[in-house]
Structure formats: structure tokens, C-alpha cells
Design goal:
By secondary structure, the chain is α+β, with helices and mostly antiparallel strands. It has two helices and four strands; from the N terminus they run βαββαβ. The protein has a four-stranded antiparallel β-sheet with strand order 2-3-1-4, with helices on one face. The longest helix has 12 residues. It is globular, with a radius of gyration of 11 Å. The mean pLDDT is 95.
Length: 68
């Protein structure tokens, strides 16, 4: 399993956190999503059937910004 971690902004409340997790869970190949709203970070575990660009697009489509 591959893992990627991003610093993000835009997770102001539990509703946004839930929307983000649900959106990422719908992507084929994602097996783990850990969101730490207090620290502004997200860690995603995925396999070869998806790629980082798809993950980034999903995060941004929910309304969050990737800082790094």
C-alpha cells in the first residue's frame, strides 16, 4: 500500500471532514483515510489502481486547499 500525506486547509468542522472522507472513500483503490483537522493534515493509503492526482483533485473538489 502506498501512503501520501498532505497539509491542508479548509477543514473547519466535522461536516467538511465527513464530506472529505466520504469523497475519498468512493475512489477505487483507497484503503485508508486519516484526517486530523486540528493539525490540518490528511493521510491517504492507496494502491496502484489510483494515483496522487486523483486524490489531490478529490480533496480540492470538496473545497479544501493543499498547502504542501
Amino acid at each position: 500500500m502506498n501512503k501520501i500525506q498532505y497539509e491542508i486547509s479548509g477543514v473547519q468542522n466535522s461536516e467538511v471532514k465527513t464530506q472529505l472522507k466520504n469523497a475519498l472513500d468512493k475512489i477505487e483503490g483507497i484503503s485508508m483515510v486519516n484526517i486530523d483537522a486540528a493539525r490540518g493534515s490528511i493521510e491517504v493509503g492507496y494502491n496502484e489502481s489510483t494515483d496522487e492526482n486523483l486524490i489531490k483533485s478529490c480533496i480540492e473538489n470538496v473545497g479544501c486547499n493543499i498547502i504542501s
